Amino acid sequence: MSDALTKLAIAQLRDAFRAVGTSDFFEAYMALFSARMAFGTFLMLRFDAGRPPLLLDHWIEPGKLLGRPLEDYIESSYGFDPFYLHGPPPEGGGVFRLVDIAPDRFFSSEYYLQYYRGTGLCDEVGLLAPLQDGGVAHLSLNRRDGQGPFRRTELQYLQSYAPLLLELLVQHCEAVAPAPPIQPTATRPPLADAIRGHARNRLNISLTRREAQIAGLVLQGHSNGSAARLLDIATETCKVHRRNLYRKLVISSQRDLFGVFKHLL
After folding, report:
1. pTM assigned to the model
2. Which part of the chain is the HTH luxR-type domain (predicted)?
3. Residues facing 140 on adjacent strands
4. Which pLDDT tens digit goes with each residue over 2-22?
């Protein structure tokens, strides 16, 4: 692939930089991508810890996806999104593919099967960039089943021009979406706390803090080994907590666990 920018690409970059902070930016920014790759969704968001994502703008290919994926995501299921859960991105941001950042059992999780594959999506690439006020700018590009996964040449384009694409995303996000005011009532409790509270208040079941943490990690797509590493405990210890969790809830599988707590999505 040539490193030289075409006259069209230079003109598109100029238009995008000129449109930063205006209503014309989204269309100009999307043109930088659509000229070089196909996608089924193009979503621009801001992430802030403990809060639902702020949708800045979006495009979804009309009539191609099942259900109401965007509404479900913003209302609840974002809490299981590996991009939302990724943590602070590196300085300057980066380009990430779902398969590279998802937990080791994510692709067999009920969230992935029901809320992701169930809509007809098959692949995702995201740009993540830190904002000066502590938030994270995120651009999500999804592919539909009929389009197939992103090709290597498309991923190479994103990586090659990531500094420009990320800078544009950050400048626009900081211009139109400053940090939201602090409103404790608007924050969302950590998943483990929500699980433990629901078990106690609705099911009359007392879960330990560790059992609730493991329940949340399993729902997010982590294996026993992966959950143990994150919690800095032995894998066998994690297995014991998971058996106790399942015994208390009278369940026997990750699918059953999802059924008990899916409303917390």
Report:
1. 0.91
2. 200-265
3. 43, 126
4. 566 789 889 999 999 999 999
